[in-house]
Specification:
The protein is an all-alpha fold. The protein contains 12 helices and no strands. Helix content is 80%, strand content 0%. Its main location: membrane. Keywords: Membrane, Transmembrane, Transmembrane helix, Transport.
Amino acid sequence: MDTVLFLTILVVVFALLFDFINGFHDTANAIATAVSTRALPPRVAVLMAATMNFIGAITFTGVAKALAKDIVDPFSIDNGVIIILAALLSAIIWNLVTWYYGIPSSSSHALIGSLAGAAIAAAGFAVLNYEGFIKIIKALIYSPFIAIVAGFIMMSIFKVLFKDLNLYRTNKGFRRLQIFTAAVQSFTHGTNDAQKSMGIITMALIAAGLQTGDDIPMWVRIAAATAMGLGTSIGGYKIIKTVGGKIMKIRPVNGAAADLASAAVIFGATQLHLPVSTTHVISSSIMGVGSAQRVKGVKWGVAKKIVLTWIITLPTSAIMGAAIFFVLNLFI
């Protein structure tokens, strides 16, 4: 078999593996609040999330197209398939390590950092498409802050609208609402996160000379959506515990507010064709909701650890991507 074709097949396999891992790594993001408030049993929540992730993943392609060309131009790079393979291996390793320790790290940061690092190792800093790359980095940086504000505003609105209602009845009603908000959250997760693997596979097909345009083939869309759905069905219960309880004590009204705020931010990014970290957005919206209720009620020590992980993911994954590229390049 031709070496380039073999490497392209490996990229497809590892991209789908990344999507699968991303599914159980990021499942917690969509359903953590619903599980922590007992609006849904964990098994039901995970199965619902898997279904809605799949639907969301096959519905949109804008983020995938942006990722396929905005970081590195696949039409102009040598060793393109090796670069992409190195990036995938780096991102998978980072995802597994952070999942093992229950840290809600960003799969998006890991993949984008790894891809940039591997590309720079192969062809220097000039290989980056700086306009597109900076646009993506800005989206990754700004989205958590937007989510904090959105969570704060959403919770403030809820406080005004439902201030005169009986607390027990309000919580009961919001538990029911959370079934809907968790479904919406899972759908928006699929519209953004699953597309990253679609973009990577398409980028590899272009770099290997097997495709001439940046359209996302239907088989790629279905394969990536299926991989994420299957991964989601396994669930990431360690991260559910962190996102759903360690940032703040979540009641149903808090969970519904956080879900709606973060879903709006994620879907807005999808419409703008910008990849964002669902982990960052959802964790940040919970912080915003907690701040609107009681600033001291947010466990800022845990929040600081999460933020620190966010900060180190990009440079660490870039270094890992570069190192793995050098190792692969020795043998291929």
